[in-house]
């Protein structure tokens, strides 16, 4: 089976590509995409945007692609609050483009969505979508287009909704790498609101393995929730990281993220095995400690340093 992995130079996408042989990766290399994430990996890299119909079609035809697995997206909720437009372009128009090409070329499309589409509600795969942020609204919109293409055109597409991922190569604007890096520098960690928002964490290599299984055996038109099964509040995870690092964490409570979901709680129709949060965090902390050259060039990024809505948005 020939795979085209869109967004395969990002955090979860590159972990997925590592599980494959001889795949094609198409990625726009936005601020979050890094070609070095694919160093030593058996794949062919094409720089390009999923909104570019002609390019994606050419890559599909030239490589005789059978299945597209789409990770490409704008992914940071904070950025979506400051500027929603790129989220609409990549996460909605980009996905419709991939659906259209899948329809024309008779491909399977596996679309990676998120638990955030349900908002802060307990949710199985049939629960209504109640997104809270521009990010989750864009992801929910894409999911609706996927289901519409299955129903109207019979496209062989399905949706996977993982919970919060963590692990090596996550851009340091996100909570766990941000906490590790800022604690290494003895800098305070900005904590939104009371810090008691609960997230359900899954280690990225577990996600990649589970997605591979679903790509191979999943059913057309189905939705697959992948909860990590390790729910913990933001403030607790920050203190856990401090204790793994053997350092005191400095916490700075700041104005809460507008629209901030209090929790995510997905119920899956299939149960998956995942490693414990303590084991996953240890592996993650070790990776960031040992790979400073990966994250040091990213430190100037304002989302690693600042709390965007404190300046207005
Ligand atoms: N990280 C999480 O906790 C999490 C949880 C659930 C679901 N997801 C979903 O999983 C997917 C991957 O997330 P991630 O954390 O690896 O994201 P990421 O931000 O690390 O990577 C996204 C990748 O997509 C690329 N990209 C963005 N827009 C593109 C476009 N228009 N065309 C081509 N490439 C483009 C970027 O260059 C980057 O390589 C996303 O769809 C996200 O919504 C993420």
UniProtKB/TrEMBL annotation:
Q: Which Pfam families match?
A: Epimerase
InterPro entries, per database record: dTDP_Gluc_deHydtase, Epimerase_deHydtase, NAD(P)-bd_dom_sf
Q: Name one GO molecular function term.
A: dTDP-glucose 4,6-dehydratase activity
The record's Gene Ontology biological-process terms are: nucleotide-sugar metabolic process
Domain NAD-dependent epimerase/dehydratase per the UniProt entry, residue ranges: 4-226
Report the sequence similarity comment from the record. Belongs to the NAD(P)-dependent epimerase/dehydratase family.
What is the official name of this protein in its record? GDP-L-fucose synthase
Phylogenetic classification of the source organism? Archaea, Thermoproteota, Thermoprotei, Sulfolobales, Sulfolobaceae
């Amino acid at each position: 089976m020939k795979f085209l992995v869109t967004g395969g130079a990002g955090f979860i996408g590159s972990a997925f590509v590592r599980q494959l042989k001889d795949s094609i990766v198409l990625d726009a290399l936005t601020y979050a995409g890094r070609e070095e994430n694919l160093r030593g990996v058996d794949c062919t890299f094409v720089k390009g945007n999923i909104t570019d119909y002609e390019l994606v079609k050419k890559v599909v035809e030239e490589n005789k692609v059978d299945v597209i697995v789409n990770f490409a997206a704008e992914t940071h909720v904070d950025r979506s609050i400051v500027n929603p437009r790129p989220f609409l372009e990549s996460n909605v128009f980009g996905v419709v483009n991939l659906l259209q090409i899948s329809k024309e070329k008779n491909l399977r499309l596996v679309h990676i969505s998120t638990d955030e589409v349900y908002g802060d509600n307990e949710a199985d795969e049939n629960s209504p979508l109640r997104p809270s942020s521009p990010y989750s609204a864009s992801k929910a919109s894409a999911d609706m287009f996927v289901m519409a293409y299955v129903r109207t055109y019979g496209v062989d597409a399905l949706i996977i909704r993982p919970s919060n991922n963590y692990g090596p190569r996550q851009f340091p604007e996100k909570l766990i790498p941000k906490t590790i890096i800022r604690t290494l520098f003895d800098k305070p960690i900005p904590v939104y609101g009371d810090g008691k928002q609960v997230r359900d964490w899954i280690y990225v290599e577990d996600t990649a393995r589970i997605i591979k299984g679903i790509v191979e055996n999943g059913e057309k038109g189905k939705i697959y929730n992948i909860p990590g099964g390790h729910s913990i509040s933001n403030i607790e995870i920050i203190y856990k990281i401090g204790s793994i690092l053997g350092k005191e964490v400095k916490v700075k409570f700041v104005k809460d993220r507008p629209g901030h979901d209090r929790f995510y709680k997905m119920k899956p129709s299939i149960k998956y095995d995942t490693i414990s949060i303590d084991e996953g965090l240890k592996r993650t902390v070790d990776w960031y400690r040992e790979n400073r050259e990966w994250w040091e060039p990213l430190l100037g990024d304002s989302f690693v340093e600042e709390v965007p809505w404190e300046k207005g948005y």
